[in-house]
Amino acid sequence: xxxxxxxxxxxxxxxxxxxxxxxxxxxxxxxxxxxxxxxxxxxxxxxxxxxxxxxxxxxxxxxxxxxxxxxxxxxxxxxxxxxxxxxxxxxxxxxxxxxxxxxxxxxxxxxxxxxxxxxxxxxxxxxxxxxxxxxxxxxxxxxxxxxxxxxxxxxxxxxxxxxxxxxxxxxxxxxxxxxxxxxxxxxxxxxxxxxxxxxxxxxxxxxxxxxxxx
Length: 214
Description:
Protein name: Peptidyl-prolyl cis-trans isomerase
Radius of gyration: 16 Å
Catalytic activity: [protein]-peptidylproline (omega=180) = [protein]-peptidylproline (omega=0)
EC number: 5.2.1.8
Family: Belongs to the cyclophilin-type PPIase family.
CATH architecture: Beta Barrel
Oligomer: single chain
Strand content: 15-25%
Order of helices and strands: HEEEHEEEEEEEHE
Distance between the termini: 36 Å
GO molecular function: isomerase activity
């Protein structure tokens, strides 16, 4: 099984390899939210959770707060642009899936992200289901971006990443929200402490205690 974004190395070349087969941007009629959301069984489930509803229950901007050991990170999720991704994130948050998890990877060269959302903290774990990308081909990753990690096209699960400095990546990762300015500063402070002895996890640990929804 291929590991998700950044779980093998931080090389941009590797990331391009993992996403080179991404499909063409979806039309409005073929976008996942337009035809309902399909969540299919996948390996790697590390916590028992219910599959999200196929019909998105949220619209517009959805506020979520990552309560972490480093401080709170406020997120604004775009449920209109990425209804299935937001539906999954909200469902997992409501079920406590992210509670007591550790952000398992920090990159400080080439790409600048903190990756979270895997209760196993190995980079291989997920919710036991996967779902399609929600891309239009214009995705960019400036500081503050909240996006889904993946192991290739249409392999989204629970892992996500927080961009703390502008990062060059192909438009192959679903962007489903943004951090506020205070959240960017918080993640930058974590990054300033560098990577720990294992060369993967942040030297200053970031543990998610809960995710609350507005």
